[in-house]
Specification:
Structural class: alpha/beta
Radius of gyration: 18 Å
CATH class of the largest domain: Alpha Beta
CATH architecture of the largest domain: Alpha-Beta Complex
Length: 209
Amino acid sequence: MHMRNYTIFFCDTEVVVATTSPGSQYAILDVNPSYDISCAKVIKKVETDKFIAIITPNPDATFKSLQSQFKLVFAAGGAVESEDGRLLMIELRNRWDLPKGHIEVGESESIAALREVEEETGVNAEIVGNEPIAVTWHAYNTYGSWELKRTSWWWMQAAECGLTPQREEGISNVAWCAREEVEERLKKSYPTIKHVVETLLYKVKGEEL
């Protein structure tokens, strides 16, 4: 039976939960006989390695064990394209990103994604399709405790219009980016965002970055 793999991004570090290592560049962590692994052990390894593989016979059980050791946060965001294929990107804390934010009580993922896009950029977009194009997991310690954020990413389209960065949230710039600009700005982004953009282009549209 095929086992599902999981990826958790710790800022610039990629942690994969899988039955086998994805490549030779991955440092290996093994689980105990109950398929569990200490969150503290993973965080310690993140300090020294950029690619980590947690090898387990049961990735579902191991990932569930890791989840239980974090505070779970749920968010949604948009990969928004203009009519000519430009991608909407935001600059947040000196890194290029995509608009996203927490899901509020009573909101669906898609409605939250549309709201966050409009709040952070001023763009009124429409969702393409009925399902998110990607779901990412991102672990961080910003407020004194470790949180694990699940973000659903939605493909959207919008008419190219004036942009309004949500400066009170730390967004310094918003831009419609042509393909070459996207490639350049991804160099100053996060692995999470590169994964979402690659998913949009390759899996959804059949193109390559």
